[in-house]
Amino acid sequence: MKKRIPRALSLRRQVPLAVFLCWLIPVLMTLGVMSWYFAASVGPEAEKSRTQQLSLTLQMCADRLDSAVAASRLASYDPTIDTAWSGYLRDGSYAALYRTTRSFLNRQYGFDSRFLFSVFWFSEDPGTMTITALTGGTGAVYGQTSRLWEQDFPAAQRLAAGLDTKVGFLRCGDRFYLVRNLMDSRFQTTGVLVLALNQPYYFEELTSLAWASAVDVTIGQAEPIGLVGEIPADASGGLLESSASGSGYGLSARALTDYNALMAPFRFYFYLLGGMLVLLVPLLFITFRFLRSKITQPITALMDGAAEIERGKLGYQLACKASSREFQYLTDSFNHMSGQLQNQFNRLYQEELALRDAQIKALQAHINPHFLNNTLEIINWEARMSGDAKVSKMIEALSTVLDAALDRRKSPEVRLAEEMRYVSAYLYIIDQRFGRRLSITTDIPEALMDCRVPRLILQPVIENAVEHGIGPGGHGTVALRGRLDGGFLILDIENDGGLSEQDEAHIARLLSRGYDADRESSGNIGIANVNLRLRILYGGDCGLTIFRGEGQQVVARLRITASPEPGGQDGRAATAYNK
Questions:
Q1: Residue from 510, 503, 513, 568 nearest 536 by CA
Q2: Amino acid 567: pLDDT
Q3: CA 246 to CA 426: how far, in whole Å?
Q4: What share of the chain is helix, strand, coil (3-state, %, to 5)?
Q5: Are 225 and 207 within one domain?
């Protein structure tokens, strides 16, 4: 049953579909890029990345606060204030105590941009024995210290009372203090050191988070410090939290994700997508119309014309006018070929009638090949009756060669033994022609005689070797050898006629892959046909090569895939001619 081939989609549908896909693909790609960027900005991985950024930034703040804590310890490690306090207890000179303590504060903190100002009061009389030092370059003024004494002092005292040797942080409004006690050698509280921290220095990175709409930070037990905006009490979605540890205190931060800021880059893509839709829709319509008028309609006209010819309307002419030079050429060519087709049909019809008459006459004059063989057999018997054995053997050899050429069994391959029988017959005829001027030898092992070879593959090569084996002196030698090489049967035909550079160029042309035998005279195509037959039957690894041997020897080598006779018959070659 013949397999039914599905019909292909028509061009009038394929072209609009291809145009629509060309329109749709950029839109889908833009949507895909937008989706990828959106997922990268607001997805779980992006939130994890923002949390890591918040943690790293908070740790940087903790490191800076640690540096402030380390600076505050200098007042405990340096014996200046403790020595001045001991002197005050001995002689009661507060002026000396004041000068020494103020000088220490100015030296240690007066030029440190991490602090706005420093305050120290002695535990003996906190309300009177106070020293203040402003930090130059931070913009601190005495109004800020006044707010400390007027508003923040009680809270600082309460915090200091419970610190012992630890450090504490105090937030009062927009003011942020570091508080620690100063101990003497008996671990009695000498006084309290308060450092007003320069808040932007410590939390600048937290205020620079581009994706956060609100940020606050909490140090230890102090009130949260609002750095950016205000985080609502019921905030949950988009709220990121992180914590870090410092020298004797804990630090935590919260940041509220600003999705409007994250989505800001996508506005460009929305505008781009909208612009693409606005521009591509009319462009799609214009393209459809253009393709319909310029391609689909002319092709439909050509298809209709072809259908008319299929229905037997030879000579059908297209009347439509194409809208492009290419289709106009196709239309003119179609009309021209349609007219030629009608003329060719009429001419072939007349030739068919004449050919039929010629075939009848040729059949009447046909000579049956059997008649030719029977005639040779009659001549052979007449020669034997006359006692002419030489003529009889020549007729038998010719009959053998003709029998091989007629190929009554229609077999493209024969056993090498049978091929050698044809070769022996041919060599006998050649021997009668050249006599002692030509010496022919064969050396093919009996084990190779069951190999299959193409019929009459050796005769053209041997004929070529005989033709070139007779040198200028009128004598020559031709040798036929056989062997197995791997999976291939190698047959070498050697002659001592020599090989000139012109001969090599001619042979290379005859054996080249692109050789055209139709352009060559019939006397030069024998070896080319042998090479072509071997390549067709056995593939590109097989074929005929001709090359120089030792001295003046010329070797024609046939390379054939070795395949034994089916059934493994132990055939024997006909007696090869060996003069």
A1: 513
A2: 45
A3: 111
A4: 55, 20, 25
A5: yes
pLDDT band at 572 (very low <50, low <70, confident <90, very high): very low
Which of 190, 180, 238, 184 is closest to 214 using CA atoms? 238
Residue with the two structure tokens 């508003």:
151
Tally of CB atoms within 10 A around 153: 18
156 within 8 A of 88, measured Cβ to Cβ: no
* DSSP element (H, E) containing 133: strand 130-134
Domain extent, residue 452, equals 439-561
> Does the pLDDT of residue 410 top 70, yes or no?
no
Residue identified by tokens 């403790």 is: 82
Q: Is residue 91 part of a domain?
A: yes
Could you tell me if 31 and 157 lie in one domain?
Answer: no
- Crossing angle, helix 416-434 and helix 389-406, to 10 degrees? 140
Comparing 342 with 91, the larger pLDDT belongs to 91
DSSP character string of 293-316: IIIIHHHHHHHHHHHHHHTT-TT-
- pLDDT band of residue 472 (cuts 50, 70, 90) is low
Q: Is position 420 within any domain?
A: no
Q: Is 74 exposed, middle or buried (0-12, 13-18, 19+ CB in 10 A)?
A: middle
pLDDT in tens, 58-67: 899 999 999 9
Q: Which of 244, 261, 278 is the last residue of a domain?
A: 261
CA 361, CA 512: separation in Å to the nearest integer? 42
Confidence of residue 557 (pLDDT cuts 50, 70, 90): very high
pLDDT of 185 over the 80 cut: no
Inter-CA distances, 267 with 34, 75, 244, Å: 10, 56, 36
Whether 205 and 278 map to the same domain: the answer is no
Residue 462: inside a domain:
yes
pTM: 0.45
Neighbours of 141 (CB within 10 A): 11
Partners of 482 in the beta sheet? 491
Using only the alpha carbons of the chain, give its radius of gyration: 56
Name 570's Cβ contacts closer than 8 Å, sequence gap at least 6: 450
The β-bridge relationship of strands 175-183 and 167-172 is: antiparallel
Q: Do residue 193 and residue 204 come from a single domain? A: yes
- The domain total for the chain is 3
The token pair at 215 is 């940020």
The residue among 209, 234, 261 that closes a domain is 261
Same domain, 477 and 557: yes
Q: In this model, does residue 464 exceed pLDDT 80?
A: yes
| Contact (CB, 8 A) for 414 and 405 | no
* Cα–Cα distance, 557 to 544 (Å, whole number): 6
534 vs 18, which has greater pLDDT? 534
pLDDT in tens, 372-400: 555 555 666 556 666 666 666 666 666 66
Torsion sign over Cα 58, 62, 68, 71 = negative
CATH number at residue 243: 3.30.450.20
Instruction: Kindly state whether residue 275 falls inside one of the protein's structural domains.
Output: yes
Verify that 50 and 189 share a domain, yes or no. yes
- Tell me how far apart the alpha carbons of residues 238 and 398 are, in angstroms, rounded to a whole number: 106
Half-sphere exposure (Cβ direction) of 289: Cα atoms closer than 13 Å = 5
Stated as kind and residue range, the H or E segment containing 495 is: strand 488-495
Give the C-alpha separation, 159 to 170, whole Å.
8
Are 234 and 270 members of one domain? no
Whether residues 124 and 271 fall in one domain: no
